[in-house]
Input
Amino acid sequence: MPVQDTAIETAAPGVSALDAAQRADIEKFEVQLGRYLTGDLAEDAFRVFRLNNGIYGQRQGGHHQMVRVKLPYGAVSPEQLETLGAIADEYSRGWGHITTRQNIQFHFVQLERIPALLRELAKVGLTSREACGDTVRNVQGCHLAGACPYEQLDISAWA
Output
């Protein structure tokens, strides 16, 4: 059976390679960011683009951003949790905020560093894409799904 080659980066042992779609999304963000920083993309156009990618501007001035990471069903693996902790230390202030939609947000991220942060997320299967704006945000679920004696249906397979 032929193996489909979707990985386009060589990964270190134990680290997932980025697939073509993830890499294309990050490269597109990088291009649009470059256009914005050089003045070739209007602020209003870049705002819509970055919001669709889960990146909010902060009111403190400068290039501080808030990055919202989607955690579907609020589930996170140990590897993903370690990456989120490393991102908090490296790109933010050492912590993240868990949202009511079961996502995590990192504040005070420098705009110029966001492509590198997105690559770190993608390596463990996470994204900030469509984490805000007029879109399907995140699938939430009860922490007792599959174990609650009162549930009508275990929804975890669809989350």
User: Anything to note?
Assistant: DSSP finds four helices and four strands in the chain. The mean pLDDT is 84. The CA atoms of residues 19 and 139 lie 22 Å apart. The helical segments are 20-37, 43-52, 78-91, 114-123.
